[in-house]
What we know:
By secondary structure, this protein is α/β, with parallel strands linked by helices. It has two domains: about 10-220, Alpha-Beta Complex (Spore Coat Polysaccharide Biosynthesis Protein SpsA, Chain A); about 260-295. It has ten helices and eight strands. The protein has helices at about 20-30, 50-60, 75-85, 105-110, 135-140, 145-155, 175-180, 195-205, 225-245, 265-295; strands spanning about 10-15, 40-45, 65-70, 90-95, 100, 120-125, 170-175, 210-220. The longest helix is centred in the C-terminal third of the chain and has 32 residues, at about 265-295. Residues about 290-300 have low confidence and may be disordered.
Amino acid sequence: MTENQQPSVSIIIPVYNNLGGLVRLLGTCERLTWPRELLEIIIVNDGSTDRIVSFLADYSFDLPLKMITLEINRGRSVARNTGIDAATGEIILFIDSDMEVEPDLIEQHIRFYEEDQCVGVMGEFFLPPFIQKNVWFRYLDSPVRGARKWHKQTGRNCPVPFQYILTSNMSIRQKIAQSVGGFEADITSYGGEDSEFAYRIIQTTGGYFAYNPHAIAYHQHEPLKKTAIKLHEYGCKSLPLILNRHPELSEHLPARLVEPMQGSDRFILKLQKIWAWVFLRKPFWILARGLRLVTPDFIAFP
């Protein structure tokens, strides 16, 4: 790609029962400054049961939209692969349906493709400004997490390790995505399909993924409780499948999450739960009950 050449771009948005988020995302996509003649937006409806199809048929966006509907929910890997097969752009940009984008997002991705060895670019995402941030959300936006921590420690020009790659705001050359067969379709549960995809690309091409903290999108993250449930699903389902396909990754991925617990481990875990209840949760419960008894009625408790 020459310095002055502008490539065509295909944005792929997999969506499942998230009409509200998709509408907000498309509203911000209307402000994208990339030339419309070099842009297509592919929405892959992954078996949704809400009104996505009928709504998009009735509502007009100032965007070159293409809708593909899967009859049943197949998971994010299959949905993204469907978008890859339908894409005509030289560069594919993956965006989740619960995100919003900055107007210059595409330009921030494209500037890194002047280097032929750059196979993909990972952008940054933060919580939307309107969300009230608790401790968990402040951690997600902090510089000590994931690619931000890696970037701070190593510098911008270092290639991104595959385990840091997330597909929420990531672009890749279309030919390369097709040459490796897309995402692993057998990964239908939460997590891991993006890092496995990146690993195969790096191994096959010898290229690298760049990281641009100025390619910004906003992501409505799950609360801590839902995130913990999804991480448990990742450890039980997706991670064992990845390690079975790529045993050499056990040193880079949290393989300990899938190791069977021995009898002594279960005993220690039970003791830890009892300790947490007695020394952490129980005192707060007793304090709350005491406050209810001594507090006047006009002060409300949840």
